[in-house]
Description:
- By secondary structure, this protein is α/β, with parallel strands linked by helices.
- The chain is elongated.
Amino acid sequence: MVGQRFRYSKWDGTQTGFELDALDVLAELTDDLMYHGDPMAALRRLMQEGFEDRNGERIQGLREILEQLRQERQERLENHDLGGVYDEINDELSDLIGQERLSLDDRQALADIELAEAERDGRIESDGEPAEPDAIQRAAELAKETTANKQIQLDMLPDDLAGKVRGLQQYEFESNEAQQRFDDLLDKLRQELMRQQFDQMSGAMADMSQDELSRLKDMMAELNRMLEQRAAGEEPDFDGFMERYGDFFPDDPKTLDELLESMARQMAAMQAMLNSMTPEQRAQLMELSDQLMEDMDLNFEMSRLGQNLQELFPDAGWERSYDFSGFDPLGFADGSQMMKDLGQIDQLDRFLRQATAPQGLAEVDLDQVERLLGNDAAASLQRVSELAKMLEEQGLIQGKEGRLELTPRGLRRLGQQALGDLFSSLSPDRLGTHDVESVGVGHERNYDTKPYEFGDPFNLSIERTIGNAIRRTGGGTPVRLTPDDFEIERTERQVRSSTVLMLDLSLSMPMRDNFLPAKKVAMALHALISTQFPRDYLGIVSFSEVAKELKAADLPEVSWDFVYGTNMQHAFVLSRQMLARQTGTKQIIMITDGEPTAHLLSDGTPFFSYPPARETVEQTLAEVMRCTRAGITINTFMLDPDSGLRGFIERISAMNRGRAFFTTPQTLGDYVLVDFIEHKRKLLFGRGRGG
């Protein structure tokens, strides 16, 4: 773009690098895909374990997040106590009762003063006997009697919270301020109780008039009727309900199910608080609730709704309880929020434990996760939820018949990843290039030309030949050619080799941790040949109790066989038949960790014996001889060889003139790839003639 400018700065370690992409994800999945061949199983493992992106940033797996949830739950339970729910109310009641007693004391003192003044003025005798009827005297005496009775009433208030509230509701306050504080406390408690039950409606509950409270009761009654209609198979009029009572639900639920699920979670949290209290605390709170809600005539409808919701949402956590063991008392509002948090922690914990695929995590409320666990956990869940989508969008995996599988592009990339992993472990001096300086007869164009000479293949370069004729004649049509104008294309010397990889899939391979390295070698060898030597042939034969031919596309899903038996004889038969249809140099690469313990009988059934039977050894060596006569070289790579395997492989090498490598799972790939490339280099440099 004209005028576009770019500015570069020195890397200081603080800049953000590349974002996570599908190839990064596939690289993380390589070993799992090699081992199990199941993209979904590999994604589940990545989802559980987590990983680091190319910037070195940790993307947390579900195990880490579940541990954070456990710690968050434990911290709340160990630091808090539900007794504060009552302490807060009791403290407020004690304060306003104290204020009422002061008012009573003031009234008693005022009455005493008035009586003293009446006595001093001679209106009554000093012994208290009236000298004459007097209104002041009667008023003072009545005031003293009233204050004394009220003090007795306050002294007789029950110790339990609900009884104390009930007694004060029947009490006539002397102090207008204490009366107002008590009324405010009751309103606050009603709202807190309603918030416990119906969090969505908490905003609509503030400062409700008696008419609005009556409307609330009507709303709940209609909600119960809708639930009963649904239970009877009828379709409730949810839209009409929201038109009449939508102001109670500021969150604006779109469906009846959405509304009911939210209410069920909230009521279950209230039940969890009750379940977590001591029997005495629970009895007090329930009695207090009955006492407060009786004034609103909502108890019946609330109980009815709770029962309906329990039947509709039995798994909402109605039986949940928590064992608080801390010393920090929770007030009513804080206790309500604590129960809500614990319920969300439990709900998230349950959801994550049941997650079977990364894409299912897209349903998680990330705002809730961020509030409970922080931004890192929320960001990790979001990125993990996108793993399968990233792979599908890049054409690396695809859904088929309800499962995920690698696409051809994914298969190629997986092989290239395995090849890259193996090559990265090699020291530079073990591998060199295998370019050929000379040119000769073949089929691969070198994009270079030469004048035609007698005996050369007539690979005519039309462009250069016509150009020579035009330059010779000076132009014009028709263009007439002469033999001196002919120019031909040079070609690289081609030496085709055909290879069959014999892969041991007997039960001993996974038992000795040899399966994954062997399978990775197969994937890497396929990637090497298909990309670097596309004219070469690679066949794959697996063998355990019997042998079978594998296609490259089948490699990711190949697993070991849960049977005993190492049938090299059958594998050699299949390999020889496959190579008979090919041209060029022919070789078998065999990867195994055990002696031959099985062969095919004349009727085609497998025979197994351990230790190896003499007949099995003889049948296997007979096939080795047939391969040798067919010009097939057998190179063997032994994993964890014992003396029996070593001795047998040495007999194969003596008969076939092939090579034997004693290796380990860690170095298997090095040996196989280096040997293959060195074999290819010798073929390229040792045959053909230049042109």
